[in-house]
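This protein record is not my work; I was only asked to verify it. Where you disagree with what is written, explain briefly why. This is what I was given:
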Amino acid sequence: MPNLDNPLGFIPARQGGAGKPNIIRRTLATSAKVYPGQLSKNSAGLVTAVTAESDNVTGVVIGYADQALSSAVDKAALVVENLEDVIFRVQCDGAVAEADIGAYFKPLVVSSDTALKVSRFELDYSTKTTTIGKAGGTLGARWELLGKVNEPGNDWGANCDVLVRFRRNLDA
């Protein structure tokens, strides 16, 4: 049975380093709309959504800090900012295989589902490379494939839910 095509963005799956996830309450830019699973960036100290591969990713949104989001004042998101210390679950849009473990990928930056209020970001299989991106902190191929999520109905191939880790290239 093929995997279900239902990307939900980058979701923290478990601790991946010595530290614990650094979850920070960050104020949103006035017109910003961010959703859980979406990559985020800082703009003048405020959080906005990543909208292009050239954006400098600084975190992953995991929720909201405020229940009443109707006011543009003091809206806030909960953001994981120490990306290297967290393993994320994300769906891959292409026919990913076990042989791809250790390869690097770029995220597929797409519009979020505003009705369900979830991210639709995926791992972009067409960007697979064996070398880490060197774009000076931008979203280059920095997501390292670690394996697949082991659960029934999730098989290697198209729309497989995989485990990834963000890697910074210190040589960039």
